[in-house]
Amino acid sequence: MTRDHHATELARQLTPVKRPNPVLWLYHWRYELIAVTLLPYALVNLFLWLGPLWSAVALAAAFNWVFYWRAARRHLRGRLRAIVVQHRLRTGFAGTRICTPDGRRPAILWTRPVDGDVVVTLFCPAGIGFEQIHERRHLLAAACFGSEVYVDRSPKHAHLITLTVCATPARKEPGRAVSPNTVVPMRAHS
Residue 178 pLDDT more than 70? Predict the structure, then answer.
């Protein structure tokens, strides 16, 4: 390691991680804020439109439809897990000091559930590289309640990184990057 690398790491460890501005904070908590504001509004309008008896029947039918239809249950569970992973990754980035020397963390562009895993697309600002995230992936897996985090680099854009957070025990897949210096083309779903 060079002297400059040590100085950069020391600066990264000593600089506090930046807190999000109010607009970014609203964006981070958008799902929860929508649930807290629109759900009561929708329930009140449902009760006013259908009345209490038919509203109870409609809500019971909706809940039974979600919990007895396996595909709907799987979709709901995947979306909820993706929301939790977003929050846990932001906390994990701060805890593992995956940030720029001035305290900026990677931005989560998109999160989606794929076959029981959660695929996260990150935008890394200047100062955060693939190597930083790859060497701390085990800590990110623990932060996200996952067994493994796979890190893939975009072959065209160095600032775009895809994380796959696996909830199931680790499995060996061909085509995964073993070392940070190995560039593997992103899969079709990444």
Answer: no
